[in-house]
Amino acid sequence: MNVTGLVVNLNSENPDKLRAFYRDLIGLKPHPQRGEGVLMAASTPFAISHHSDLSGPAKEPPRTLFNFKVDDVPKDQARLEAAGVRFLGAPSNQPISFSTFVDPDGNYGQIFSMEGAPPGDMFAISRHSADVDRLRDFLRHVVGLSDDYPDIGNPFMAGGTSFYASPHSDIRGDTQEPARVILNLFVDDIAAEEARLEAAGVRFIRCQGREDWGGVISTFLDPDGGYLQLIEFKQE
User: Fold this and answer.
1) E-strand spans in the chain?
2) What are phi and psi of 82, to 5 degrees?
3) Strand partners for 10
4) Which of 147, 100, 107, 128 is nearest to 3 (CA)?
5) Could you report the per-residue pLDDT of 72-129, keeping only the tens digit for each?
6) Span of 12-16, 20-24, 95-99, 173-177 with lowest mean pLDDT
7) Distance from C-alpha of 51 to C-alpha of 9, rounded to nearest angstrom
8) pTM beyond 0.85, yes or no
9) For the sheet containing 29-31, what is the strand order?
């Protein structure tokens, strides 16, 4: 699959509070064209929206983690803790230092620093599964994403965004809240990609729905019941 870009949808019962957290405390900037409704995690659009299927805090926060690069993990953790942000422990050791925080919805995120990392912002997604081999096989052979990047731990790449499929001791069975985090894959020909995936047995719950902003969206399920979306958007 030729994915030209990825957009993260982090959905919430109270998106305004969640958006303020990631903007004002984590430091994400508004999207240059879309404004405050969509933030930027490095080069990845990070949309925080309301979703009718969600209420209350996240039921399984380790399912998807967002990873944000900082210059100094202990310093940033101290700054965030002073602002009332809860962390799950002290920072890990070098060469990769990271620490896990809890956002207002109970989702987990991580700040990290890495020796030898290039300057500038970095962002990565960690998707956890009880059957990680099945998930990786699906992403690689059915969806058609590449994970041939050994120098950075073989993440899957969607546009310029990397996401890692990994096991986690607290994740069991299918996702309890598939609408909590949706990964949107931008493609040039949504009809062709949808037909290819359906022929491979992939289940779609929405097929080429048209949005008022001009996009066309098809929503399908991964093997854990999580939501992924194909989006075609061609500006006239």
Assistant:
1) 5-12, 29-31, 35-41, 44-50, 64-69, 86-87, 96-102, 108-114, 123-128, 156-158, 161-166, 181-186, 204-210, 216-221, 227-232
2) -65, -25
3) 48, 181
4) 147
5) 999 999 999 999 999 999 998 777 899 999 999 999 999 999 877 667 789 999 999 9
6) 95-99
7) 10
8) yes
9) 29-31, 35-41, 44-50, 5-12, 181-186, 227-232, 216-221, 204-210
